[in-house]
Write a structure and sequence with these properties.
Layout lengths: L2 E11 L5 H11 L3 E6 L5 E8 H11 L7 E11 L7 E4 L1
Parallel strand pairs: 2-5
Antiparallel strand pairs: 1-3, 1-4, 2-3
Length: 92
């Protein structure tokens, strides 16, 4: 199976609602590596790498996020995985 990388930008009510925590949990459940962080503009940025079906599942989860979130827009750039990450980290 092929590996995939998704660079994601999520905007809406995505800070202060545990979006990063649940993104990490979801990525780990799917065996996806990478990172996520808050951006100064109130959005969340993330990079996911792993098996294509797993990465697509995590990106699909980001379209809604956790219960308290409101996702207004999700931008995704798809590329080939670089295998540069070990695990999934929340950058603070």
């Amino acid at each position: 199976m092929s590996k995939l990388r998704a660079e994601v930008h999520v905007s809406g009510r995505v800070q202060g609602v545990c979006f990063r925590h649940y993104t990490q949990k979801t990525a780990q459940q799917h065996g996806v590596s990478g990172w996520c962080r808050n951006r100064p503009d109130g959005s969340v940025e993330a990079v996911f790498e792993g098996e294509e079906t797993a990465v697509r599942a995590v990106v699909d989860w980001c379209r809604q996020g956790p219960d308290l979130a409101r996702v207004d827009a999700l931008q995704v750039e798809w590329t080939t995985a670089s295998d540069e990450f070990i695990g999934f980290n929340v950058i603070r």
